[in-house]
Amino acid sequence: MIVMDAPPAQEDCRPFIHVAELFGAAGVTVPKVLAQDLEQGFLLLSDLGNTTYLSRLDAASARGLYGDAAAALVKIQLATRPGTLPAYDRALLQREVDLFPQWYVARHLGVTLTPDQESGLAEVMQTLLANNLAQPQVYVHRDYHSRNLMVLEGEANPGILDFQDAVIGPITYDAVSLWRDAYIEWDEQEQLDWLIRYWERARKAGLPVAPDFGDFYRDFEWMGLQRHLKVLGIFARLYHRDGKDGYLANLPLVLKYARQVAGRYIELRRLVRLFDALDGVERPVGYTF
Q1: Separation CA 220–CA 258 (nearest Å)
Q2: What is the pairing mode between strands 167-170 and 137-140?
Q3: Fewer Cβ close by (within 10 Å): the C or N end of the chain?
């Protein structure tokens, strides 16, 4: 068993208990709340062990582990009931992407954006958010990645942790967290293979994913770019505000994800120019006649 000590002045245990009930009812493995004292901030939980997906993932295990994670994700999404969790609305999505200019650009890089760069970034953000909000809405864990998924013995994989901030939001969000993980990188062809398998599983289960995989993949990529801009800001904030430097090593991979997506779509080209300016990259000018 695990004792959670969450002083009420700093942490409210009720969202954790609520989401544990919702996800548990969906048929996935989460810690069971065995006892609670909310006035003092104590929970007694079942223990899901110490073996994270991150510690176990390799070329031999990845397909099986990710298959289990995809199956659990579909169960969670199928269990969605409107009104049971907060909405991942425009205000929240905007606050998240605003962390990128505030903490990564201004604080971490020490750069003040020009008016043209600010307007370009705002344009890209609004393009992304419009896509995100138009996607079908389901339960979203928000951090469904290799550090929060546990490899279990004798129970259904994965064991799922850190779900207290769950919301109802875009259907591609948790897939991005899983396969474009800030802590482990896979070749894009492997990401595509796993994503297609999830998409096919989701369609068969009746989830409202886009019927054309190309459209679904665009939604996945644009949702991913919103997430990765946010994560760049969060990792910078963890370092500069909270003194946690361990996340700095993960910045290059997150930036790589963001650059790759921004470079694929004409609607996002102003973000590519911003990344180039921040990195001191000069590109040759091309002319057509």
Answers
A1: 12
A2: antiparallel
A3: C
pLDDT tens digits, residue range 75-89?
999 999 999 999 999
Q: Which two tokens stand for residue 275?
A: 């990344």
* Cβ neighbours for 159, distance < 8 A, ≥ 6 positions apart: 29, 30, 31, 48, 49, 149, 150, 151, 152
Residue 116 backbone dihedrals phi, psi, to 5 degrees: -65, -40
Look up the pTM and report it.
0.94
User: Tell me: the pLDDT tens digits for 253-269?
Assistant: 999 999 999 999 999 99
Q: Which domains does the chain have, with CATH numbers?
A: 1-47 (3.30.200.20), 48-279 (3.90.1200.10)
Q: What is the mean pLDDT of residues 137-163?
A: 95
R_g over Cα of the chain: 20
Look at residue 289 in the predicted model and tell me its pLDDT: 46
